[in-house]
Structure formats: C-alpha cells, structure tokens
Amino acid sequence: MKANYFLTTFAIMKKILYIFFILVIVSCSNDSNNQTQNTVASSLVEGSWLLEFKLSEKNIAPVNFNLIKVDSNYQVEFSNADEKILAKRVSVSEDNITIHDPIFNTWFEGKIINSTSIKGKWFKDGKDYEIPFTATHGVTSRFKKPNNYKKTDVNISGKWEVDFSKNNPDDHYKAIGQFEQVDDYVTGTFMTETGDYRFLEGNMYKNNLYLSCYDGSHLFLFKATLVNEKLTGVFWSGTHWEEPWVAEKNDDFELTNPDSLTYLKEGFDELAFTFPNTDGEDVSLTDDKYKGKVVIVNIMGPWCPNCKDETAYLSNLYDNNREKGLEIIALSFDKSEDFDVARDNILKIKSFFNVEYDFLIAGKANKIAAAKSLPMLNHVMSYPTTIFIDRNGKIRKIRTGFYGPGTGSYYTRYSEETNDFIAKMLAEEIEN
Predict the structure, then answer these.
(1) How many CB atoms lie within 10 A of CB 44?
(2) Does domain 274-427 have CATH number 3.40.50.10490?
(3) For residues 113 and 119, is the Cβ–Cβ distance under 8 A?
(4) Positive or negative torsion for Cα 378, 416, 411, 247
C-alpha cells in the first residue's frame, strides 16, 4: 500500500511539473512572438517606397511615397509629380499599420510582412469599396522598365486633343492632354470641361505610355500606345470605371469656355438660398454680413479633389481681400445625408487649409438634387462650380469646374485673371 501511495504521488508531481514546463514554454514563445512583432513594427525602413494597387490581374496602379519617422511615430508622404500629400495619422501596432488621408474618408490597412514589405487593402467611404495593395521599400521607378529596354526618340511633350469613350455617345467627352517628357519620365494631366485629372506621373517606354495618380480620393491609371503620332489607350479610375481614349497633338484645340456652361435661367436675376452652417444656424445671401460685399459662392464637396485645390486657392484669396470687402460662402454637398457627418467633413477641410470663410451644409452630393436646391441655375454640371457676385448682388460670372495647380500654365492664368477680376469688383461702388 505504501509503495503504491508513493508511486501515485510521484506520478501526480510529474504531471504538475510537465504542465508547468509547457506553460513556461508557451509563455516564453508568446513573449518571443510579441517581441518579434514589436521589432517588425518598429523596424520599418524609412525612405522611398513604391505602393502598387492591384486593379486586376493585369493592371497595377503604382504611386511613390516616402516613409518618415518623427520621434516614435511614422508619417507617410505620397508623391505625384510636384504634389506631396502628407498623412500624419499613421498608427502601427505589432505587425499592423493603418494610414488615414488627412482630408478624405479613405485609409489603408496593412500587414507588415517585414521591415521592407507591407501588404493590405485601401478603403474608401467604408469597407464596401476596397483595393488590394503591396508596398515595397527601395523601389524608385513608378513603372518598371520592360526587359531589354532601349531608349527611343519618342517624346510626347505638348498639347493633345483627347477623346474619351469616343464611340459611345452617352459617355463621350473631350479633353486637353498636357504632357512634359524628359528622357522616359513623363508628367502632365488631362483637362475636361468639369475639371482636371490633377498631377499625373509615369513613363514612356518605347512607344508605350504609362501614367498614374493617387490623390487621397481617386486612383487613376492611364495606358496608351503611340502609333502614327496617335495615342490609343485605356483609362481606369479605381476598380469601378474603365474607358478607352484616343489623342492627337493639336496646339490649337480648346474646350468650351468654362464661364459659359452654367448660367441663370430665364426669369431669374439673382442667386438665393438658405442653408445651415456647421452650428446649425440658417445662413442666406440676404444676411447683413454679405450686404454691399463682393461675394463668391463656391458649390463644392469635401470628397472632391478639384474642390480641394480650389479651396486652397480661395482661402488665400479671402485672406488677402476680406478687409477690402470680399466674402466667400462654400455650399458643401456631402455624400452623407447625416448632418453630423457632413459637419465633421467640413471642419476637417477648414482645419487643414485654415479656412476662415463660411461653409454651409447644402445637401447630398447629387447633381440633380443640387440643381433642385438652386433652381435659378440651368444645372449643376460640376463640383466645383463658382459664382461671382458684385456689391449690388448681381451675378457677374459663373465658372464651371476648376483647373488646379496640376494644369500648370492654365492654373496660373486662371488665378491671375480671377485675382484681377476680384480687385476690379472690389473697387466698384454700390449703386443707390
């Protein structure tokens, strides 16, 4: 009996020691895993990275970014030609990284594979719209050179007359293509009657053109082949839009005058509206604040990159002229009908650009709905659309769309002409 008792006790102790040993190993293993994960997260290599969006099995849209570490935090600076977009809201936890755009409702969720590689998804306006991506450190070329690549004399610099969806009357529209090529490096943009495609960057390899842009809200990819001095290609906007395009050089081609596309309908002689500001207070053009002032009414949306460009311009214009009698009212048409969401989107814009003029919540971002809320206009064709009103309440001009800094000389000419136009109206006297 005594022998059996000792044997049983020994067996129990052996089991206890075994379980303790296993727990120690698991604990050490977990500590080791946590340490490894933290090491991976903290060892992301700073400098140049290439982000590649997978639109399909055959189509990759690349964009360059710079990874910066400030103290113990990371920042990401996306690059499109001369444009830099700095995302400061970057969170890293164990082997996960999240990057939020500073203005738009878009973000990246990635898994840190190692110190030079990230893999994940880009989301826009919720998780119903997503695009897979990979990011790799140390790759500087936007588009990979083809095997056995040899430089050619092909150069597409200059002005091009462009047709998008030429054989589809419902979707067809004209554009100006403006490109600059140095060796195989190409920058430029497309300008339409409703705005521009912002800063495009890419390469010309042999007779094949590749351009891309990521502006925080949109993801663009253009491909084309040059044959007999004619570009023939395809344009992708994210994974939701694809269309053909053709282009030929034409220095004389111009689009319809943007000042002629939107106008007051017959029977109307002024602009009128009442919308709430971010505090929920109704604001109208007839308020004392705007009487006797030169007023710019900017129809925009916080989701719109062209509106972002114009907001930057208008904010500077306002700062330079508010003491002279200029007021600006932005009518924000949001993708959300929730007042609090729309307000927060506006406040983000105002904070980012340090905007001092008024923003009103005008409704949902739908051109038909926008036109109904402003029935005196023939239509709302584009976000943005900008209305210029003199001190006597008379509409002097309505500008459809906006050509931003990505259009180069077009932006310079428009901003100079608008500055002069505002100065002229500010110098005018109020009629009795």
Answers:
(1) 20
(2) no
(3) yes
(4) positive
pLDDT value of residue 414: 96
Angle at 239 between CA 238 and CA 240, to 5 degrees: 95
Residues 6+ apart with CB under 8 A from 392: 430, 431
Q: What was the pLDDT predicted at 208? A: 96
**pLDDT on residue 150:** 83
Structure tokens at 395: 């509409």
CB 65 within 8 A of CB 53: no
- Cβ(239)–Cβ(55) below 8 Å: yes
CA distance 340 to 189: 35
Please give the C-alpha separations between residue 339 and each of 28, 330, 334, 363, in angstroms, as whole numbers. 51, 16, 9, 9
H/E element, 242? strand 241-249
pLDDT score of 3: 45
Question: Among all chains, which residue has been given the structure tokens 């002279």?
Answer: 324
**Which class is 158-249 in CATH?**
mainly beta
Pairing of strands 294-300, 326-334: parallel
For CATH 3.40.30.10, the residue range(s) in the chain are 274-427
Q: What local confidence, expressed as pLDDT, does residue 41 receive?
A: 54
Tokens of 222: 């253009």
Instruction: Say what the pLDDT of residue 141 is.
Output: 87
Q: Which of 69, 88, 66 is nearest to 77 (CA)?
A: 66
First-residue to last-residue Cα distance in the chain: 121
DSSP symbols for 195-236: EE---EEEEEETTEEEEEEE-SS-EEEEEEEEETTEEEEEEE
Token pair recorded at residue 159: 């002005």
Cα 213 from Cα 198, distance rounded (Å): 8
Q: Is there a contact between 235 and 221 (Cβ–Cβ < 8 Å)?
A: yes
Task: Please state the φ and ψ torsions of residue 408, each to the nearest 5 degrees.
Answer: 65, -115
- Taking the chain (432 residues) in consecutive chunks of 10 residues, what is each chunk's mean pLDDT? 44 49 45 46 87 96 96 95 96 95 97 97 95 95 89 93 96 98 97 96 96 97 97 98 98 96 95 97 97 98 97 98 98 96 96 97 92 95 97 97 96 97 97 78
Distance CA 237, CA 55 (A): 9
Q: CATH classification of 47-137, choosing from 2.40.128.120, 3.40.50.10540, 3.40.640.10, 3.40.1190.20? A: 2.40.128.120
Please state whether the predicted TM-score (pTM) of the whole model is above 0.90.
no
